[in-house]
């Protein structure tokens, strides 16, 4: 479990190191001129200078140091500035900044078995330095691999659209924020063991695979045409019904069943046809 440390300021230790270095130079110069004892003192001062200098560390903003003492976890320093720690501690640098991960485009099968291409972009950062440092081997590689696994699981859990599954409550193409929320939760669950915090995750690319893209486009066009024709027919039937009622109410003309059928046929052809109707002059009667 992560433990945050508050080490002592390093400015006093820095001054002490400078004094030791100055003393090492002074005694070395004096030893050359006077006695070998000064040289020995100079060497001791220099060794102490190197020892205490190792305990100084500078932590940049949004960075941290994970400290170990002969294999035992001591704590994590998250404050920024100059600090002094036990020189025998070993430290591991770890960034706490937010990072972008643009996942590669994956080819997977959706819930209906259709091959699709999908890619995501996510924003993440290290939240627990202990887990990131010790619970996984390399947390950056872990994030990359688990994000791909989460995307594949998401794609296989939902259909691309509702062409084949009319009762699908959520689809990848129309899910929007709901799909992104599910993706974020999936990534959070998978990356929690590495101490990773998911700040945002979005689908950046979604399309049918190239081998079926043409067929699916034709299917979508056919569906759109059928839907449009359905609306046209519904409107035409309503207009024909209105025309017959108006003719009957205004007593403009008396129509028997055969004439009504002919009129309905003509109106439906005019209203539902793709091209403009060509008028035809009938010089006779309906029965001749």
Structural class: alpha+beta
Quickly count the helices. 7
Which strand order does the major sheet show?
1-5-4-7
Percentage beta strand = 15-25%
Distance between the termini: 98 Å
Report the average pLDDT across residues.
82
The strand count comes to: 11
What best-fitting shape do the alpha-carbon axes yield?
A: rod-shaped
Helix content: 40-55%
Radius of gyration: 39 Å
Helix-strand string: EEHHEEEEEEEEHHHEHH
Task: Report the sheet with the most strands, covering strand number, pairing sense and barrel closure.
Answer: 4 strands, mixed
Instruction: Extract low-pLDDT stretches.
Output: none
Subcellular location: Membrane
Pfam family, one: Band_7
Transmembrane segments: 12-29, 35-59
Protein name: SPFH domain-containing protein
């Amino acid at each position: 479990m992560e433990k945050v440390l508050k080490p002592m300021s390093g400015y006093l230790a820095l001054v002490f190191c400078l004094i030791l270095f100055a003393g090492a130079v002074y005694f070395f110069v004096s030893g050359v001129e006077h006695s070998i004892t000064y040289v020995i003192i100079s060497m001791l001062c220099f060794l102490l200078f190197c020892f205490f200098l190792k305990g100084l560390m500078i932590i940049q903003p949004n960075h941290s140091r994970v400290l170990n003492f002969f294999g035992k976890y001591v704590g994590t320093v998250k404050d920024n500035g100059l600090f002094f720690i036990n020189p025998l501690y070993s430290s591991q640098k770890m960034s706490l900044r937010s990072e972008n991960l643009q996942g590669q485009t994956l080819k997977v099968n959706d819930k209906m078995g259709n091959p699709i291409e999908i890619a995501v972009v996510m924003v993440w950062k290290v939240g627990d330095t202990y887990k990131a440092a010790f619970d996984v081997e390399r947390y950056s590689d872990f994030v990359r691999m688990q994000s791909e696994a989460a995307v594949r699981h998401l794609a296989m859990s939902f259909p691309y659209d509702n062409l084949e599954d009319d009762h699908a409550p959520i689809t990848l193409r129309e899910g929007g924020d709901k799909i992104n929320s599910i993706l974020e939760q999936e990534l959070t669950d998978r990356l929690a063991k590495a101490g990773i915090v998911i700040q945002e995750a979005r689908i950046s690319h979604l399309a049918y695979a190239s081998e079926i893209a043409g067929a699916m486009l034709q299917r979508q066009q056919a569906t759109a045409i059928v839907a449009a024709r359905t609306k046209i027919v519904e409107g035409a039937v309503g207009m024909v019904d209105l025309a017959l009622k108006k003719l009957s109410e205004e007593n403009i003309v008396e129509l028997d069943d055969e004439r009504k059928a002919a009129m309905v046929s003509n109106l439906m052809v005019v209203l539902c046809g793709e091209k403009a109707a060509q008028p035809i002059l009938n010089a006779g009667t309906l029965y001749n």
